[in-house]
Amino acid sequence: MAATKTTSTTLLPFFFFFFFFFLNLSESRLTLDYYKQTCPQFEQIVQQTVTSKQIQSPTTAAATLRLFLHDCLLPNGCDASVLLSSTPFNKAERDNDINLSLPGDAFDLIVRIKTALEFSCPNTVSCSDILSTATRDLLIMLGGPHYNVYLGRRDGRTSASPSVNGHLPKPSMPMSQIIEIFTKRGFTVEEMVALSGAHTVGFSHCSEFSSEIYNNSSSPSSPSSYNPRFAEALRNACRDYQKNPTLSIFNDVMTPNKFDNVYFQNLPKGLGVLKSDHGLFSDPLTKPFVETFAADEDKFFKVFASSMQKLSLLGVKTGRRGEIRRRCDQIN
């Protein structure tokens, strides 16, 4: 009888261990229908809000895609930390120099969706799930590929400006450094080039490429990587950028409002806007993928869709590792 009691006592911790193990496992599992019971209107509210916002402000899709990339590429992953505002005691990610140009339309969209969802199902949907789903829906609106967004993320509780440094690609970086940023996050060179195809929509400020189209004395120059006539057009369009820093150029000057593979077709013609665009075609590691995607839009869409899904799952927080923020710009 004593032996039985000892055995039961010994096994008790194991039962607790497995109970909490499976409890944690169930909390951490992302699913396609995560809000089916708790917020059945989730997909409809997101879709209606992004449609209305995109019609009202056609730059919203590209802005939201950029916001998503700047959130998920950081070491803390897709946790909507880029949405958090700075406090008197902390400078947040969104106030890092590289994020100061993130367009307001994207932040406004997330606020609109979150507000609508809080009315329908309070304290239920995370800001990180909103950002991931809105990005996918907007890409589809522009003609991009569909991919599944798995849901059940929690929002991060921290956001620090220094954590951004060195983890996001800049147009001025050599291609080897940009490749390294993505490979450290588990992406292949092919996937990195596909994600760069996001430049098929959106725009870049003149200040981001002015050094490439003007020399130090500010007299015209046409770098060999630019089509000469295109370089001249860029100089004319950006003539007053120092007085007006909002001046910008579409990244894809041929089909700027359509998600397609024309961006890749532009690069061999010298119609890339940024230094990094030209780098994709001149670097021997990335050039073959540029040529493949330029010739085969279906291939580009397939790799882009799988890469976006992969990106959306980086470093996600689930269960008690995060929270459902009541407001996307501040922790609870």
From TrEMBL:
Catalytic site positions: 70
Keyword Disulfide bond among UniProt keywords: yes
GO CC terms, sorted: extracellular region
Locations listed in the record: Secreted
Pfam family, any one: peroxidase
Name of the protein in its database record: Peroxidase
UniProt function note: Removal of H(2)O(2), oxidation of toxic reductants, biosynthesis and degradation of lignin, suberization, auxin catabolism, response to environmental stresses such as wounding, pathogen attack and oxidative stress. These functions might be dependent on each isozyme/isoform in each plant tissue.
List of residues binding substrate: 169
Main location class: secreted
